[in-house]
Amino acid sequence: MGKKIATVVTNLFEDVEFTSPKEALTNAGHQVITIEKKEGNTVTGKKGETTITIDKGIDDVSPEEFDALLIPGGFSPDQLRSDDRFLAFTKAFADAKKPIFSICHGPQLLINAEVVKGKKMTAVKQVGVDLKNAGALFEDSEVVEDESGIISSRTPEDLPAFNKAIVNALAD
Questions:
Q1: 142, 166 contact by CB (below 8 A)
Q2: If exposure means fewest CB atoms within 10 Å of the residue's CB, which of 3, 76, 131, 147 is most exposed?
Q3: Interatomic CA distance for residues 43 and 10, integer angstroms
Q4: Range of the domain at 146
Q5: pTM (2 decimals)?
Q6: Which ranges carry the DJ-1/PfpI domain (predicted)?
Q7: Which residues are known catalytic residues?
Q8: Helix 15-27 and helix 159-169, axial crossing angle in degrees, nearest 10
Q9: Are strands 100-103 and 51-53 parallel, antiparallel or unpaired?
Q10: Is 151 helix (H, G, I), strand (E, B) or coil?
Q11: Does residue 106 contact residue 152 with C-beta atoms inside 8 Å?
Q12: Nearest by Cα to 80 from 103, 102, 110, 53
């Protein structure tokens, strides 16, 4: 049975950090639901290669509806972390120990949701400093899996390992 994956995303996300995990997850039989401020909004990746019509607005969803959370990188997480609704949504996944998949700048949202302390994680190099300062156990590896369910990767080059790890994490 496929799982429902909440994907929080807004303009200037890293195109391939959305499209590649989405493809891996849908090919494995899962449903990827995009969430932004308002259902029907159109958001565009920072490379301009990918346009997404948002499935659901943040006010119209509950973390209980989903089995996992995907946070693509780019400038999207930095924008979302200023919105308390996205912080509460993200924190609820961490509190429930549901899988959270985060790549590149994705951990910025997790840092502001205050859920990284003591967690083994990775990110793009410049966010690694932020993770350490927030109390995470930073590891410079292509994919890091924490026992809490957070799976993180650094950059688009790590996508093959990241995609394999997130699909395996959802296997029944």
A1: no
A2: 147
A3: 6
A4: 4-169
A5: 0.98
A6: 3-168
A7: 104
A8: 40
A9: unpaired
A10: strand
A11: yes
A12: 110
Given this model, what pLDDT does residue 66 score?
98
CB 66 within 8 A of CB 40: no
**Across-strand partners of 138?**
121
Query: Which amino acid is it at 125?
Result: K
What the block records as the tokens of 101 is 């998949």
Phi, psi of 95 (to 5 degrees): -60, -35
Q: What is the C-alpha to C-alpha distance for residues 167 and 129, in angstroms, rounded to an integer?
A: 28
Which residue(s) pair with 4 in the sheet? 31
User: Bridge partners of 120?
Assistant: 137
Report the CATH number at residue 11: 3.40.50.880
3-state DSSP helix/strand/coil percent for the chain, to nearest 5?
40, 25, 40
Q: What are phi and psi of 118, to 5 degrees?
A: 80, 0
Q: At a CB cut-off of 8 Å and minimum separation 6, what does 23 contact?
A: none
136 DSSP assignment: -
pLDDT at 172 over 80: no
Provide the domain count of the chain.
Answer: 1
| Structure-token pair, residue 98 | 């549901």
Rounded CA gap, 19 and 67, in Å? 19
Separation in Å, CA 164 to CA 71, 114, 167:
16, 27, 5
Q: What are the pLDDT digits (tens) for 98-143? A: 999 999 999 999 999 999 999 999 999 999 999 999 999 999 999 9
